[in-house]
Each structure stands twice: as structure tokens, then as C-alpha cells.
Amino acid sequence: ETAVFQTPNYHVTQVGNEVSFNCKQTLGHDTMYWYKQDSKKLLKIMFSYNNKQLIVNETVPRRFSPQSSDKAHLNLRIKSVEPEDSAVYLCASSLQGAGNTLYFGEGSRLIVV
Amino acid sequence: GEQVEQRPPHLSVREGDSAVIICTYTDPNSYYFFWYKQEPGAGLQLLMKVFSSTEINEGQGFTVLLNKKDKQLSLNLTAAHPGDSAVYFCAAGNNYAQGLTFGLGTRVSVFP
């Protein structure tokens, strides 16, 4: 049963455009994440948010920014997309605390032409 | 930081046979682990959560083993069926804020 909802599922855009992906969770979790999954299926964390505070920001280009209105929502904005941004972006959520399960959305596929 | 090596990258299994996927992690501080299953076009579905205090976990159609000494985690699919065809990922963690470190995945194909 899906409880982490991502939109859009698929987006094609041109280099230099701005893109936003939305994520909402209905699990009552307090921590949300964005992962990037590349064409080789490699999953790498981009951001995590807890109580409106950015916790993790790996070596992610500055054109990427997370945006959160409340603990149930974490959007991902890409200011000016580049070809290497083509990937599937997966949103996840969990309860705060080590060992809690991450629940994933179905992903948003971005294709940059 | 943590690194997780997963092998094999591809696995072709006859229906009814078993298959094993092995993950080796590097950080001795990692103490919780996950196995996820990803079907085409879908997100990651949790199969099993493993804590370092447990060594053997059994689920529906699979067994997970944790070998802390060798820092290895394995997933054994028993009596594979077509519904098992998917990509399987292992993941390790020790700090929820840092998220999980994933292996590269194993694509499992079950044939009749």
C-alpha cells in the first residue's frame, strides 16, 4: 500500500529549465529523504529533512534544493537542469531514530534533452 | 564513510531453485540493515529489516543471514518463483539522519 506519493512520475525537459518534484507522505513520519537513482541503479542520498531542518546535504550541486512546507511534504527543485541530472528521484520517509524503516515512493523519472 | 559491495549484479534462477545475494559492508559501526525489492517502474519495497543483535531472519520465501565478524549480509531466495524477478538492494545504516548506504543491486530473473 503506497503511503509516499510522488508527482510527477515522469518528466522530460530541456537543458537549462527548472524542474520541481513533489513528495507527500501520509505515514505521520518526521523525517523525509531524497535519493537519486542513476541509470546503473546506483542509489545515493541527496537530502534528508527533519522538523524543517536540513540534516544531510551530500556533494549535491547547488542547483538542487529541497523545499518543505511541513513534515509531510518534501519537494525537490532543480534550478537549471543539466544532462547528468537525468535519473529517477526517489522520495522516502521514516520516523526519527536509528534503525527505523525508510518507506519509498515510486519515483520520479527525469529526462533532460 | 560506509561502502556496501553487493554481488552478483545479475542472477538467473530456474523456478523452484534457490539463489543467494551477498553484501559486504565496511563500517563496523553499521548496525542495522535492510533488504529492498524493486520491480520495474516501481519504488523500493521493504523485504526485511535486520539488526546486529539478530543473525537469522526468515520471511516469506527467503532467509536473511547476518555475519558480523565478516561484515556480510546475505539474502537467500528459497524456491524462486516468477514473482521474485526484480532488482534487490541491501542497505546499511548507523545514523538515521545520514540515511542508508545502498549496494548496487542484484537483478534477479526467474525462468521456468
What features would you describe in this structure?
The complex is a heterodimer of chains A (113) and B (112). Helix content of chain A is 0%, strand content 51%. In chain A, strands 2, 4, 5, 6, 9, 10 and 11 form a 7-stranded mixed β-sheet that branches. In chain A, strands 1-3-8-7 form a 4-stranded antiparallel β-sheet, with no helix packed on it. In chain A, strand 9 and strand 10 form a beta hairpin. Chain A starts with a strand and ends with a strand. The mean pLDDT of chain A is 92. Chain B is an all-beta fold and 112 residues long. Chain B has no helices and 11 strands. In chain B, the strands form 2 sheets. In chain B, strands 2, 4, 5, 9, 10 and 11 form a 6-stranded mixed β-sheet that branches. In chain B, strands 1-3-8-7-6 form a 5-stranded antiparallel β-sheet, with no helix packed on it. Chain B is globular, with a radius of gyration of 13 Å. The mean pLDDT of chain B is 90. Chains A and B meet through strand 4, strand 5, strand 9 and strand 10 of A and strand 4, strand 5 and strand 9 of B.
